[in-house]
Amino acid sequence: MPRVCLTEAQRAAARYKDRINRLADGLTVYKRRSGKTNEDIARATGVGTVAIGRLISGDITVRMPLETYWRLEELAKVKDEG
Fold first, then answer.
1. Of the four, 16, 32, 33, 66, which is 20 to 30 A from 8 by CA?
2. What's 8-76's CATH class?
3. What is the largest CA-CA distance in the chain?
4. 41-78 pLDDT tens trace
5. Residue 41's closest CA among 73, 67, 16?
């Protein structure tokens, strides 16, 4: 197998993508277990319903303040593995 060398920017992008995917999975599980809708999650965290839908679908272009991201992680009980 060839050796792959990634730049620091590529490693950071991969970490960000993994984190978004974990958040998307956590929010999906939260919605299933609690019976909440995207609108309920948006109201609880102060994020738009479109942004919640994009996060759940794994869209990595969604940008938000760090405090909002933390609220979403807490809601979804996502644990950082890295």
1. 66
2. mainly alpha
3. 48
4. 999 888 999 999 999 998 989 888 889 889 998 988 86
5. 73
